[in-house]
From TrEMBL:
This is J domain-containing protein. Residues 74-86 have a biased composition (Pro residues). It comes from the Bacteria. Residues 62-89, 119-139 are annotated as: Disordered.
Length: 158
């Protein structure tokens, strides 16, 4: 400890003091309040104002043409409403017997095999992977399938 400070704190104080001195030396003589130097840039002669934008310059170097603006008088085709989603057949089967038949759990299944069945079932039925209107059925199916697989895993442990 140096003068009531830890070595670490004294090093931090010295670095801050050096940084403040460097900032005073590099400070510009005149500064406009509110303008950030990172926002200012020069547009050299011969360069269009459009290509002075970073995104436009990128598009030009990649060979993409700027998007054409549609004439004001061109009619916009009317958009048809989205058709109602159709529930997949497998989501209609929520009875435990149907789900058990779909999982096809047998006494020969290993823990790894049951895990694979769980992942395959979840890939097809997880509520996050289906349309919001069908999430209730998907949740019921996943809950039942997890229950059946967990019961099979407990039987394996005996």
């Amino acid at each position: 400890m140096l003068f009531g400070q830890s070595v670490f704190q004294s090093v931090l104080d010295r670095l801050k003091a050096e940084d403040d001195e460097a900032a005073e030396q590099d400070a510009p003589t005149a500064r406009v309040s509110g303008l950030n130097a990172g926002l200012a840039f020069d547009v050299m002669e011969g360069i269009s104002a459009q290509s002075s934008r970073a995104d436009q310059a990128y598009m030009e170097t990649m060979g993409f043409a700027p998007p054409e603006t549609a004439p004001e008088s061109s009619p916009v085709p009317p958009t048809s409403p989205e058709p109602d989603p159709v529930m997949p057949d497998h989501l209609t089967r929520v009875a435990p017997e149907d789900i058990a038949a779909e999982l096809d759990i047998s006494m020969r299944d290993t823990a790894q095999g049951l895990s694979e069945k769980r992942r395959a079932f979840a890939k097809k039925n997880h509520p996050d992977r289906v349309h919001p209107q069908f999430r209730e059925n998907a949740t019921k199916r996943m809950t039942t399938a997890n229950l059946l697989i967990d019961q099979a895993l407990r039987r394996l442990g005996r």
